[in-house]
Amino acid sequence: MEDAEAVVPGRPWRLGPRATRVFDLVFAAALVLPAFPLVVLIGTTVEPLAFSLLQTVPLFWRRGHPVAVFAFVAGASVLQAATYDMPTWGQVGFPAALYALARFGSARAGWVGLFVGLCGAATASWVWTSAQFAQYPPGLEYIDYDLGLDDLSPYFFSIAAIVLAAWALGTQGRIRRAYEASLVERGRRLAVEAEQRAVLAAAQERTRIAREMHDVVAHGLSVVIVQADGARYAAEKDPAVAVRTLETVAAVGRDALTEMRRLLGLLRGSDDPALAPQPGLTDLPSLVTEHDRVELDLPDPLPEVPDGVALTVFRLVQESLTNVRKHAGPSARATVGLRSAAGALEVEVVDDGHGAAAAGTSGLGLLGMRERVEVHDGTLDVGPAPGGGWAVRARIPT
């Protein structure tokens, strides 16, 4: 789980809920309060104060209701343009409301806000410029002066730049927040997927160990039983044979116990270097010495194959010889052959026993053999051999 947790990106630092509310309160208050002293200093009527409050007070709720706040502030700006032809302090509320709309609202709402802001920039430029020219005394030669682009452009571009900046900053903030959220969600999904992969890997490892346990126990016990029966019959006629047979039983039992300890070490997660290594091709002769009437045909030198392929071949031969001893009959003979050809390793175990009568071997043993071979993209053919007996043939790419 440490690797799974490592892929989860840390959330970016942000204000907490309480700090966010305090920040919104302070920011809105910073825009509302200056309206009172400015009206007193300028000495104008109450209209600028009223419009300033209408355009700034709603900013207290801009984060939770960005669309409604922008609509209210924009409506107050339109009302001001229609009734009061001079700028007021409250104009600072419009870019703040537009930023909140682009930041906390949807992308479509942000585009609508930008369009309204540019229209407002054009309207404000016309109204304020016309008001300035209307204030000149009558009778001057420029009293009938027609407004042109040169007169409107400074106002329009200045206001439009503020509108664009507010919209761009809000949009960038919304995009960044969405990007950060997607990264956090992706990290969460990766963590879940990593945990699921770990669970699947553990299940596959348990299945592999179960196959190993089956092979070790079935092989070891079958050899011990056969050798013990032989020793019991031989003890009556030739005690020396019984002694050698019992030595074989003891050796097989010790080997099986060693492998059992290795597998139990895997289950416990032990890293003990003294555990026995995985058996391979070089251990095949030990299987033949444990079985009477078995011939082994191996190439010299043995081919170099991956450890997983070597273990699969060893377990395949081990399980096949166990089935020969259990199902082929007491007098059956078997041949184990190994060949390397065309980038693959071919293994064959053929006996001359009961043949089709051994069909009862299609249990966990054959299922385990097939699974082992298919893991390496190999093929397994199990069935009656020509002329009687039973054959197990596998081809494993190397």
TrEMBL record:
<keyword id="KW-0597">Phosphoprotein</keyword>
<keyword id="KW-0812">Transmembrane</keyword>
<dbReference type="GO" id="GO:0005524">
    <property type="term" value="F:ATP binding"/>
</dbReference>
<dbReference type="GO" id="GO:0046983">
    <property type="term" value="F:protein dimerization activity"/>
</dbReference>
<dbReference type="Pfam" id="PF23539">
    <property type="entry name" value="DUF7134"/>
</dbReference>
<protein>
    <recommendedName>
        <fullName>histidine kinase</fullName>
        <ecNumber>2.7.13.3</ecNumber>
    </recommendedName>
</protein>
<keyword id="KW-0902">Two-component regulatory system</keyword>
<dbReference type="Pfam" id="PF02518">
    <property type="entry name" value="HATPase_c"/>
</dbReference>
<keyword id="KW-0808">Transferase</keyword>
<keyword id="KW-0547">Nucleotide-binding</keyword>
<dbReference type="Pfam" id="PF07730">
    <property type="entry name" value="HisKA_3"/>
</dbReference>
<keyword id="KW-0067">ATP-binding</keyword>
<feature type="domain" description="Histidine kinase/HSP90-like ATPase">
    <location>
        <begin position="310"/>
        <end position="397"/>
    </location>
</feature>
<feature type="transmembrane region" description="Helical">
    <location>
        <begin position="109"/>
        <end position="128"/>
    </location>
</feature>
<dbReference type="InterPro" id="IPR050482">
    <property type="entry name" value="Sensor_HK_TwoCompSys"/>
</dbReference>
<dbReference type="InterPro" id="IPR003594">
    <property type="entry name" value="HATPase_dom"/>
</dbReference>
<dbReference type="InterPro" id="IPR011712">
    <property type="entry name" value="Sig_transdc_His_kin_sub3_dim/P"/>
</dbReference>
<feature type="domain" description="Signal transduction histidine kinase subgroup 3 dimerisation and phosphoacceptor">
    <location>
        <begin position="205"/>
        <end position="270"/>
    </location>
</feature>
<feature type="domain" description="DUF7134">
    <location>
        <begin position="20"/>
        <end position="177"/>
    </location>
</feature>
<dbReference type="GO" id="GO:0000155">
    <property type="term" value="F:phosphorelay sensor kinase activity"/>
</dbReference>
<keyword id="KW-0472">Membrane</keyword>
<keyword id="KW-0418">Kinase</keyword>
<feature type="transmembrane region" description="Helical">
    <location>
        <begin position="152"/>
        <end position="170"/>
    </location>
</feature>
<dbReference type="GO" id="GO:0016020">
    <property type="term" value="C:membrane"/>
</dbReference>
<feature type="transmembrane region" description="Helical">
    <location>
        <begin position="66"/>
        <end position="84"/>
    </location>
</feature>
<feature type="transmembrane region" description="Helical">
    <location>
        <begin position="22"/>
        <end position="46"/>
    </location>
</feature>
<dbReference type="InterPro" id="IPR036890">
    <property type="entry name" value="HATPase_C_sf"/>
</dbReference>
<dbReference type="InterPro" id="IPR055558">
    <property type="entry name" value="DUF7134"/>
</dbReference>
<keyword id="KW-1133">Transmembrane helix</keyword>
